[in-house]
Design goal:
Layout (H helix, E strand, L loop, with lengths): L3 H10 L39 H13 L3 E5 L2 H17 L6 E5 L4 H11 L1 E5 L15 H10 L6 E5 L10 H11 L3 E4 L22 E5 H4 L7 E5 L11 H4 L10 H15 L2 H21 L3 E3 L6 E4 L7 H10 L6 E2 L3 E4 L7 H12 L23 H5 L3 E5 L12 E3 L4 E4 L7 H9 L4 E5 L1
Parallel strand pairs: 2-3, 2-4, 4-5, 5-6
Antiparallel strand pairs: 1-7, 6-7, 8-9, 9-11, 10-11, 12-15, 13-14
Helix pairs in contact: 1-9, 2-9, 3-4, 5-6
Length: about 450
């Protein structure tokens, strides 16, 4: 597969041109990539244009993902989420105030989008809460029940799958419910770009999602910040009405050409060796998971390329286990009091897996008194997300926030999932969860 962005920039870097344009390094090696760091010079295109080498590269990506349209993001899924929601609200709006139906484990970018676009959110509460802010195992039945409970038809249903701990939802079943109600399905697939390239695709597009975002950098060989916004070829045609024009509403006017080159080069890798390497890696991860279970650890989630350990059942906190791994040369993706997440890729070696298993084998089951995690609550909404976020506010200690209205949401990073959402009344349970995740202060409406 051709790589038009990389070809253009490489030729330019070798041309000897005197650079009287941004960026300031002028191609002089300071960090190692300066020669290929350019801006929107003639021939280089513009990320938000419908023509040029970037649009050509995006068409290559669209062919690989089987989408009707694929757009690049150099600001990760945070940009793609906002653009996806704006595209849905602007394209499908009926004149009524927009409403998006979603589970509570949305990324912070969803809340920011609600404030900036000014739509309402209604929450899908699972029948069986899993007791962690990262997960919301909603079923098609949960979605159907939530839809029937609303007083107006939502603009879209929005879900996160896979979630941060590797739980994949029944996207196909949820899409069927959405279709019965004539509502599009949007999916935050930030952790699952690679799912398209499994032996049998599990990507949301192939499960029927109308739009979805992927963080390419999380699971593919792409620099941090590289991402995709996909529109399904079978989606409502109104969603194809200038989606690229909606991205710069939230984006920088100086997108990184280094990130775009990595997305471009990734097309070649995906079209050549990646699927075979992924198949081998999936088999390796299955063996590693089996070895971890044999040690007595409980694993959670069903995502093929994620290893999530429920450490609380082993009598040790996730943070303590993360520190133990760190001391033995292994760095995890995420840990909290209850769990630990590892994100292998096709580029991890046998040595990496051996080191991980050896480090885990050194840990004996503990007797630590680890509290049961609390699921995210669904408190009273006092004002819209936009009103809450843009209200005159003050910071108060979490212990003093009971009964106050949340201004800027309380977010633990990672996983960047809001514990308290703008416009909601803060409850005792909210405060307890904030403490679990180290949030000592919260912004509240004056």
């Amino acid at each position: 597969m051709d790589t038009p962005i990389c070809d253009f920039v490489t030729a330019y870097a070798l041309s000897g041109t005197s650079r009287f344009h941004m960026p300031g390094a002028k191609g002089v090696p300071c960090h190692g990539l300066e020669s290929i760091d350019i801006t929107e010079i003639k021939g280089a295109g513009y990320l938000y244009s419908e023509e040029g080498i970037i649009a050509q590269s995006e068409k290559n990506a669209s062919l690989l993902f089987g989408s009707g349209r694929t757009l690049y993001s150099t600001e990760g899924s945070s940009l793609s989420i906002k653009a996806m929601l704006l595209n849905a609200v602007a394209s499908l709006g009926s004149g009524d105030r927009a409403l998006i139906l979603a589970p509570r484990n949305v990324h912070k970018a969803f809340i920011d989008a609600a404030a900036l676009i000014d739509f309402d959110a209604a929450w899908i509460m699972p029948q069986k809460p899993l007791g962690t802010i990262c997960q919301a195992y909603i079923t098609p039945e949960d979605v159907s029940k939530a839809l029937l409970s609303l007083d107006r038809k939502p603009t879209a249903v929005y879900i996160t799958s896979p979630d941060y701990l590797g739980l994949m939802l029944d996207v196909k079943g949820i899409k069927k419910v959405c279709s019965q109600h004539g509502i599009p399905l949007l999916v935050d697939n930030a952790h699952g770009a690679y799912l398209r390239f499994l032996e049998k695709s599990l990507h949301p597009l192939d499960m029927g999602a109308d739009m979805c975002c992927d963080s390419a950098h999380k699971t593919l060989p792409v620099y941090t910040g590289g991402g995709y916004l996909h529109i399904n070829a079978a989606a409502d045609k109104r969603l194809f009405d200038n989606p690229k024009g909606k991205m710069p509403v939230f984006a920088s006017t100086s997108p990184s050409y280094i990130i775009m080159q990595s997305l471009d080069n990734c097309n070649r890798i995906l079209s050549e060796e990646f699927p075979a390497r992924l198949e081998t890696a999936v088999r390796q991860v299955i063996k590693v998971k089996s070895g971890i279970r044999d040690m007595g650890y409980d694993l959670i989630g069903n995502e093929p390329m994620k290893i999530s350990i429920l450490t609380s059942s082993f009598g040790i906190s996730g943070d303590a286990l993360a520190q133990h791994l760190r001391e033995n040369g292994v760095e995890c993706e995420y840990s909290d009091e209850f769990s630990l997440v590892l994100m292998p890729s096709v580029y991890n070696t046998q040595e990496d897996y051996d080191k991980l298993l050896f480090a885990l084998s050194l840990v004996s089951p503990g007797k630590a008194d680890i509290k049961e995690p609390l699921a995210l609550p669904c408190p009273e909404t006092r004002m819209s997300i936009r009103q809450g976020m843009f209200s005159d506010a003050e910071n108060v200690p979490a212990d003093c926030a009971l009964g106050r209205v949340c201004a800027c949401g309380a977010v633990s990073c990672q996983p960047s999932i809001p514990i308290a959402i703008s416009g909601e009344v803060i409850t005792d349970k909210t405060i307890r969860i904030m403490k679990e995740y180290g949030i000592k202060e919260i912004s509240v409406v004056k």
